Each structure stands twice: as C-alpha cells, then as structure tokens.
Fold:
Amino acid sequence: MSNNPTELLYSRTHEWARLEGEEAVIGITWFAQKSLGDITYVELPRAGDRLTAGTEFGSVESVKAASDLISPVNGVVVAVNTALENAPETLNTAPFGDGWLARVKLADNPKDLMAAAAYEAFCAAEKH
Amino acid sequence: MPFIPHTPQELREMLAVVGVRSLDDLFADIPPDMRPKHFNLPKGQSEAAVCAMFEKLAAKNRPGMTSFLGAGFYAHHIPKAVDALAGRSEFYTAYTPYQSECSQGTLQAVFEFQTAVSRLLEMDCANASVYDGGTALFEGAMMAVRATRRRALVVDEAVNPVWRAMLATYCAGLQLTIKTIPQKNGMSRSEALSAAVNEDCAAVIVQNPNFFGVVADYAGVFAAARENGAFGIISVYPVMQAVLKTPGEMGADVAVAEGQSLGQPLSFGGPWLGLMSCRKEHTRQLPGRIVGRTTDDDSNTGYVLTLQAREQHIRRAKATSNICSNQALCALRALIHLSLLGPDGLVRQAEHGMALARFAAGRLTALRGVELLNDAPFGNEVAMRLPKDAEGLVAGLMDRGCVPGYPVGRHYPGMENVLLLACTEANSRNQIELLAEELGDML
Structure:
C-alpha cells in the first residue's frame, strides 16, 4: 500500500515534486524508501545550489545501499529540510510529509513527470 | 612448478584469443618512441648470490649508533610482547575483515584501537587508520574541503615539512590553494594563522609539538577557524598527548598523527601508521574503514565494518577518498603497545623524554656558541642554533658513532646552523654527556 498523493508529480527515479506557485517541494517516494530499507543518512543540497532535472543533487544511505537523489525539477534550492540530518528515519516514516528534502525556486515548468496513477503503473511494471 | 606464470604456449593462446600476433601489438596505440627501451634490470642471479649482495649492503648499516634523531619519527622501546602478540597467525595472516562473522577478533582489535586513539586525542571518533601521518593530514584536509566546499588551506610552516610536501603533492591536481604561514625562530605564529582564516578557507592546519619541538595551545586558532566556518586540523605526536593539552581540549575538528612511535620500529621508512580522528558531526566525512560495535538478535556483542554504504568497494564514484584499506597489523601493534604501557606508562614515557631533552638543552647550550632557537616551551625535541653548519656537524659526529639530531636547514633555508635534537626513553644522560663532549670537541 503506497498511497501516492494525487497532488504530486513523480519521476522515473522515484522522486516527487509538489508545485507551489513558482516553487516546488521535492522528496523521495514511498516506493523509494521502502526499496531502500532503513535510511541512516541523507546528504542534502545547500540553499543556493542549482538543481538540474535528471541529475544528482544528494544521496541517501540505508542499511542496504547508498543511492543518488535525482532532481525532478530545474531550479535553485531555497530551503532544505535540515531536520533530516538528525532524523533520517523520517524519510521512512513520512516520505511525503516531514521527510521532504528541499524547496526549489523553479527555473521552468517541470517536464517528463508522471501523475500518481501513471507512477503507480510504472512502479508495478518495475517490480516485475 | 614454473615461477613464471605464463608459458610461451599460454601466451600464444591468449594472444590468439585477443586476435593479435605479438605482445607488442597490444601496445600499438603507444607510439614506439614512447615505449620503454629497456627496464634497466640486471640479469637473473642465484639465491646465494642475491643473499650475498644484500648482506654486503646491510653491512653498511651502523645499528649501534647513538641517535638523537627525531623530526617526526622516534626510537622508542617496544615491549617484546608487541611482537609476540601481533605475530600470532590469527592476526598476522588475517585478510580484510569483510565477512564479520569470521573476523570478530580482528574487528574487535580495530574497534579497541579506534577507542584508544579517540581517548588519547580526546576526539569523538577515529577510523581504523590510514597509511601514514602525512596521508592522514591530507585526508583530514580533504574532509574539510568536502564539508565546507571551499578550496583554500592555511598551513603553518612549522608543520613537519615531509607532511607538508605530501600534502602539496596530493593536492597538486585538485585545484586547491595552500597558503603557508611562516614560522618565526621555530615558533608558530598563532595570530597570523588566525588572521589568515577567512570565508574561502576550508581548514587551518597546525602541529603540536611543531616540527621544532615547540609546544603551543591552538585553541584560539581553532576558534578563529570555527568563526569563519573552517575546520581546525592538528597533527600531533601521540606520545606527547599523554601530557599535553589534547586536540579535543583545544577544539580541533580533525586530529591526525603519525602513529609510528606507538609500537612500530624505525625500519627505514615504514610501514607507518596514520591515525585519524574527528568530532562526531564529521564522522560521515571520515575516510577509510570504521569498525562499530553492535548487538545481534540474541543481544550478543558483535563488531562490524560500519558506515560502509559510501565506501569505495560499494560506491566507487562517491567514495570519500581513494583509501579503502587500513594498516591493520600496525594498528594492532599500536593497540598492544598502548595497552601494555597504560595511561600512566605513556605519561612516564612522555615525561622521561621531556626531562632528557631539557637536560640535553642545558648541557649543549653550556657549550660556546650553542643557544636555544627560541625560549618557547618544548616537548622531547628541541631546536638549537650552532656556531657552525649543522649538516657538516652531523656528518662529522656520525664518524664518531653519534647522530646528534636533524639538520633543519635541509627544509628551512637560512636555518643551516639549526640542529633539531630529540630524546626518548631509548636515550640516556650518559649518551647526552658523551654528545656534549664530542660536540664541544668539534666546535
């Protein structure tokens, strides 16, 4: 059961973006955190960093693996969720809520992102 | 059984599989004039002939010499139990402890080593060691560069010149700038170091005691670093940490050391042992191996390589450093050495060296024309200005069976008359009397 919120957009690399005017909040999906297992560390970008859609902007480490975070959008980081530095497990418990990663001032409209239903179909296909 | 792994027949078969006619064809991409013409190796010789050659070379060594040589590497007495315990086959032949179930002894030893290093330097955590003190210093600098995303390093000129040379070499291709703050008469200039730290600076790097044996408190320098968002990095002589203000007390972010003086013999340049430790918030930046203690499902204590997800063998491109190994056997020797001495023994060892160095300074400065380089406090090593070129005096005294110390002018132009003399428990007052006599004779 993943409950991908319908107001979010999703990438093929399992990040989400919530558009709020000229900004977007980004994070990793329930599917992503579930696949990684217990998350032990998050390497976040810093305010002022320029993100490019499809390229790495940080990493997450779990007991199983370390994975790159891939930005779903183009833009400049305006805020990061520093609470994750001391509580990375929030990514497991609330990937769509308190586990957000960064707030980005968008450079353009996000492209190639999926709606919830399409993303669920994508995940289902990837599992097989 | 042939000792050459590939027979001509096997070579022909392999070349056929690759689809080339000769070994030279494999290097077709390298222009012929850029290929080595020869390897400058002598012809093969019998085992007996090779042994005879090396025995002849070894006979040039003069092991019985009285020595006051230090400059970063020190002759200490090593308890026999260090060799006996570290030589046990479980340790001596152990390979890398990736499979923790089979390596609990090795892993526990490394964990205890890390604990000992952390306690000695009063830092929060330590890694399983790196190759040597110079490498540790560079890796410390890289921790700062990664964490601050800055590219300038401020380095005290009184940091051991060998380690500064290593730092410069390692940094050569990394677009880092190194600003060296000149020492004055062997003394580090704390105000100048603090003043050089700005918002472009990743770290300020100092040493205690410094290369000239001078002891100082760098708390102010580290406070200035912190104010500017930079790291404070200190390289120390581990034995002296038993009696000096520690890196942790001074507020260092990273403390490193050459661990040779903890149970490693002075064997012509290694193997050495790089100690690395840091404050808790920088643990993720600590390169190399880190062993952690945990419990299994049945609450049994277990030791594991931890923080491995970012390590080189798993995530090469994102590894914190090229180092994915450690000096396990040397680290074990250091641990055994420290545990045999105990905290009190280490204090006595440090005090012994300091007392002897004071005695030597008193005896030698009584000679005409010999004076201390400065009046700063010193550890077991002291710099003296001589009325003559130190290099020449060292050469002359070596003919009389004594190495009086290290001629500083080798690394510091203008200080050709300066001799750096070190004392440990391997020296005696009697040796110092003899040195004073011989030196007085030559001046």
